[in-house]
Design goal:
Rossmann fold, 8 helices, 22 strands, globular
Length: 407
């Protein structure tokens, strides 16, 4: 009988991060790295993932979950790199805050156009996310190019135009300190002024901020909410307020579904180092890239769980990646996932859980680092197995004895 297995890392993917040069107009000499997953879909969606000051595209690739989420859902990720001193993106110059005005936004737009041309990407599913300087750039790109981006997710940023300067400086201390306050109409006018005459639909926006952010202070979160609700013509009063995870307060504007026009998540006690556990996956849900559809949020479903399985097979072996989501209203503290392996399959190794026995009715038990699953949160596990020709995935799962929905 196979002994219990615990392996911390999944098997390597053939997909790699690749630098792209000569991708188009690039006035500030940005660098471009591209991640195309092995299972990229036909007419794929594209996510631009923008790093923080002092960061790089490859660093953001290795330090966030977006590439692994691309592996799971088949979209392409662009990782721009700033090249100026300090490696911050230009979100302050007059050129950057005007559609087609020059500087970094133009280069990033060129990266998107390159991927659309070379990978036949879906122009209706172009998204952007970023942290800190990258979050500020997310605000800028949605303002400058509302006809390019369908939605954005800004982790610890500031409103469009808040960092504006005219003296050549890239840093605005008043904005960073949270002392720049405007009326919703004034914030909205800054966005509308970046592309005068545009009357088409505006991108949806997801905003994240920690209450203890000491770099870009927390008042910027409220100013961003003012701006994007005004851009969408929405009330400042949330359509819904909930707490999908401990210390999170989520407000939604325009609708109560998981793809509202504006969604804002405040992290009580959170600092500037976002995104952290589970936040990237929430952004992917907001974008609709995980297969969810607009409508009521899937969590909570009292006492329930949801399991998604992706299996990749070759002649005598396979790997299965399993995502377990707590769709109940209370935390799971310690878990066992039960399932039956298809006939002829034998587990040979696994990660993020212990598996026993190797064949037949299997129980996967949590590792020390993933024993707790908050309401609405997920954990990822997986295993490698041999097979004798049957490469199907398990079709039924139980979490601590309760039946799960299979996605």
């Amino acid at each position: 009988m196979l002994a219990a297995l615990l392996v911390t890392a999944p098997p390597a993917s053939a997909a790699t991060l690749t630098e792209v040069t000569n991708f188009g107009t690039n006035p500030s000499n940005l660098r471009m790295h591209l991640y195309v997953p092995d299972n990229v879909t036909a007419r794929p969606a594209v996510l631009v993932a923008v790093h923080y000051c002092t960061g790089t595209g490859p660093g953001f690739y290795s330090g966030t979950q977006f590439a692994s989420l691309a592996d799971r859902h088949g979209f392409i990720v662009i990782y721009p790199s700033a090249t100026r001193s300090g490696q911050c993106f230009d979100v302050s110059s007059p050129e950057a805050l005007r559609r087609g005005g020059g500087s970094d936004p133009v280069g990033i737009r060129s990266m998107v156009d390159h991927v659309v041309r070379t990978h036949s990407a879906d122009t209706g599913r172009i998204f952007v996310t970023g942290a800190s300087s990258g979050a500020m750039m997310t605000n800028v790109l949605l303002g400058n190019y509302p006809d390019v981006f369908a939605a954005g997710a800004a982790f610890a940023g500031v409103p469009f135009g808040c960092f504006a300067t005219t003296d050549g400086s890239g840093w605005n201390s008043a904005c960073a300190g949270g002392t720049v306050t405007r009326a919703p109409q004034q914030w909205g006018d800054l966005v509308r002024g970046s592309y005068p005459g545009y009357t088409g639909p505006r991108p949806r926006m997801q905003l994240w901020h920690g209450t203890n952010d000491d770099i870009l202070r927390y008042p910027n979160f409220g100013e961003e909410i003012k701006q994007w609700t005004n851009v969408h013509g929405l009330s400042q009063t949330p359509a819904s307020t909930d707490s999908p995870q401990a210390n999170w307060t989520r407000t939604r504007y325009g609708s109560t579904g998981n793809q509202a026009a504006v969604e804002a998540i405040s992290i009580q006690g959170g600092g500037h180092n976002l995104p952290t556990d589970g936040m990237a996956a929430r952004a992917i849900t907001f974008f609709g890239l995980d297969g969810t559809t607009p409508g009521p949020d899937p969590d909570p479903e009292p006492g329930a769980c949801r399991v998604a399985v992706t299996t990749n097979a070759w002649n005598t072996g396979l790997t299965s990646s399993v995502t377990i989501t707590n769709t109940g209203t209370t935390p799971v503290n310690g878990w066992s996932l039960g399932f039956t392996l298809p006939t002829g399959q034998t587990i040979t190794s696994g990660w993020n859980a212990t598996y026993s026995p190797a064949t037949g009715t299997v129980t996967a038990t949590n590792a020390a680092h993933n024993a707790a699953i908050a309401p609405g949160a997920s954990v990822g596990i997986g295993y490698q197995a041999s097979h004798t020709g049957n490469t199907t995935r398990p079709t039924a799962f139980t979490l601590n004895g309760a039946a799960c929905t299979v996605a």
